[in-house]
Amino acid sequence: MRSSRRHPLFVPALLCALVVLAARPAVAEDDGDSADLDISAQVARLYEDASVATRQYEAGRQDAEAQRGRAERAERLLVQERQEIAALHEDLGRIASAQYRQGGGLPYTAQILFAKDPDDLMRGQRAVRRADLAVVNAVAKSRRAEGRLAADEGKARSVWEALEKRNGELAGIKRTIEAKLDEARSALQSRADASVAAGSCRGAVRLDQPPTDFTRAWVAPVETYELSAGFGSGGEHWAHRHTGQDFAVPIGSPVRAVGAGRVVKVSCGGAFGIEVVVEHPDGYYTQYAHLASVAVDQGQRVSTGEWIGQSGTSGNSTGPHLHFEVRVTPDMGSAIDPVPWLAEHGVVV
Asked: What is the mean pLDDT of the chain?
């Protein structure tokens, strides 16, 4: 079972790492193809940085929730300790009142002086000792409880202060990275729109590929998404019916080849904007449209999960998403519903 205890150096090291991520430069200032490549690669890096920052922020938030639970338990203990101290003070008050009414230690002393026999004397002595011991114990217990209360209050206060400080720092770093990512995404999409308007692609962007040693032969075209318009749905943006499945993702999200195959088309004009079509060994074709950039060349072979581009909103698109199609030919008009097709290949979306 994994321990929930965190190393004391974890938080400083984490914050230093995230500060390095947040300090990466924003959009490149150069013009031309090199700047386009720089922006695409930068979006990919910032996308990963944002993912790391989000994961670390969520880990910090979960740890904060655990600390919150411990602090709340400490608060409940403080309430109990305050109640115990109040009860001790009441006991001390009753003892003091009893001794005052009885004239201090005189009644017990009198019992000893006027004892008729040794048994009476012993009973008097025991009564004196019990009374004195009760007072001493009550005072000592009260002092210990007050000391614990002060220490516990200090610990609870420290926990809350550390919690709020760390969460604020993590949230600030996360916001900085996301702001840089938004800026880079905007620049990337502007260049994509210019390519579509010119009807000419700028060339493949060589992104740092992730490991593609998947245990399955097929994967979803994007890793994190929300499904939007589905196959066959109607709308004013399509001449007839929607021919694919839309995956709502932010601009710059890595788009993956759902399976191994060969790139048979890379296009940068028309309603689909920037698009890639991949032919698979089973005779089917998959299309990835409305991209912001492409990372492959026509004729290139790709493996399952390999990044073939970055999502965008180029062409006839009302917002950032990936338009994904499965076709029986490489051309429009031969699309089939991609969701059950993916399911048949072991991918549930």
From this structure: 79
